[in-house]
Design brief:
The protein is α/β, with parallel strands linked by helices. The N and C termini lie far apart (47 Å). The chain has three domains: 113 residues, 3-Layer(aba) Sandwich (Glutaredoxin); 179 residues, 3-Layer(bba) Sandwich (FAD/NAD(P)-binding domain), CATH 3.50.50.60; 113 residues, FAD/NAD(P)-binding domain (3-Layer(bba) Sandwich). It has twelve helices and 22 strands. It is globular and about 60 Å long. Strands 6, 7, 8, 9, 10, 11 and 22 form a seven-stranded mixed sheet that branches. A five-stranded mixed sheet has the order 1-3-2-4-5, covered by helices on one side.
């Protein structure tokens, strides 16, 4: 694997052969999550396909010319021709493999697959998810000398990693950068002795057998499982959203706001996340138009007051997006006035979406008792409806979802499990 700059692009990428190019950024959790996958696949496919990295922030003109508007972005080339498939954002290992396989003969792909050897590892406790709840559970369990493994499809930290500032976590007088707070939590748990298997693809989860298959070849087994899979952003489901994700539509201000210096953006939403992230985006953008479906914001009063005092920000109340299209360098957001049903268009350089979250339970949705909103029900010890399966953090049914409540959940589950195992 090799890192290059724009001046080497023509020689290294367009000069012939099969190439995959990773545009990455700093302070970008999805970039950090894809890096070990990229490196691991380079070891498997490197004889046939050239793996190249490029620092997006120092090569912006080339990135923009290639249509790269989000980090990370993987582009694929075959003998100097850019292939139509682009991978961006939270990139799965399986998606990269699918594209790499399509660039090679079936016979060569089969040879590469044969180099992958299945493995099995066993632990006392398996924690699914490395956000504050999972990290805290891992910390308490390793301090109790319980053999514990932490599995996550991204890097440790959860949503805290993509939060630009945390001002209400106890013990810190000054607001803390989210990535730093989650980094410190992660390092504390790692140094204690919890085993990490992060930035992996979770292929299969069998709660009855208490085993998880990661990256299609490693089976991880445990006596008990803690589900700490958290939530992920809701999608609007309107035309153009899926196609323009990572190509003008972003769900992570920390990752992408820096690329909108002196530009205009649209922010969808009106809750705490939307208001707080709009404030962060305003450090870069020259103008922000918020689109909110209700006639008043739902964020806390302090956040609202700060937003209203920001001269860069204006709000379209009682409006909803109806479609997204790209016209040249501009994003066109078609919105409907919910009171008059009239349609208008907003031109901007980019769109950020913050419209709430949904629990990440797709791989075991029908196995556990859920509440009416799809969150996992637990008792006071964080036990679910299935023996030996616990759940903590934002994924469970509860009134408030904060970093502090997730940490409390992780503490409770770990203590209960340690006592049961002993």
């Amino acid at each position: 694997m090799k890192e290059i700059t724009s001046s080497e692009f023509e020689l290294e990428v367009l000069g012939g052969g099969k190439v995959v190019l990773d545009f990455y950024s700093t302070e970008c959790p999805p970039c950090e999550a894809v890096a070990p996958k990229f490196e691991g696949l380079a070891a498997l496919y490197g004889k046939d396909i050239k793996f190249i990295k490029m620092f997006r922030q120092q090569n912006k003109p080339l990135a923009e010319r290639l249509g790269v508007r989000s980090s990370p972005t993987l582009l694929f080339f075959d003998n100097g021709v850019q292939l139509p498939v682009t991978l961006t954002g939270g990139i799965k290992r399986s998606d990269i493999i699918h594209q790499l396989d399509s660039m090679l003969s079936k016979e060569r792909v089969q040879e590469i697959k044969q180099e992958i050897k299945p493995t099995v590892s066993e632990f006392d406790v398996l924690i699914l998810g490395a956000g504050p709840g999972g990290l805290t559970a891992g910390l308490y369990l390793c301090q109790a000398k319980v053999n514990t493994v932490l599995i996550d499809i991204a890097l440790p930290g959860g949503q805290v990693s993509t939060t630009h500032e945390v001002s209400n976590y106890p013990g810190f007088i000054d607001p803390q950068p989210g990535y730093m707070l989650s980094h410190n939590m992660s390092e504390q748990t790692k140094q204690c002795g919890t085993i990490y298997k992060v930035a992996v693809d979770v292929t299969k989860i069998d709660l009855e057998k208490k085993e998880v298959v990661i990256d299609e070849f490693e089976t991880v087994r445990a006596k008990m499982i803690i589900i700490a899979t958290g939530t992920s952003p809701n999608l609007m489901g309107v035309p153009g959203e899926k196609e323009l994700k990572g190509k003008g539509i972003s769900y992570c201000a920390t990752c992408d706001a820096k690329y909108y210096g002196d530009k205009e953006v649209v922010v969808i939403g009106g809750g705490n996340s939307a208001v707080e992230e709009a404030d962060f985006i305003s450090r870069f953008a020259s103008k922000i138009t918020m689109v909110h479906q209700f006639d008043a914001l739902t964020a806390n009063k302090q956040a609202q007051e700060k937003l209203f005092a920001n001269p860069k920000t204006s709000i379209l109340f009682s409006h909803e997006p109806r479609s997204f299209v790209r016209e040249g360098d501009k994003m066109i957001t078609e919105v409907e006035d919910l009171k008059t049903n009239t349609i208008s268009k907003l031109a901007s350089d980019g769109v950020f979406v913050f419209i709430g979250m949904k629990p990440n339970i797709d791989l075991f949705r029908n196995k556990l008792e859920l509440d009416q909103w799809g969150y996992i029900k637990t008792n006071e010890d964080m036990q679910t409806s299935m023996p030996g399966i616990y759940a903590v953090g934002d994924v469970i049914s509860k009134k408030y979802r904060q970093i502090t409540t997730a940490v409390a959940d992780g503490t409770i589950a770990a203590i209960a499990i340690a006592k049961e195992l002993n």
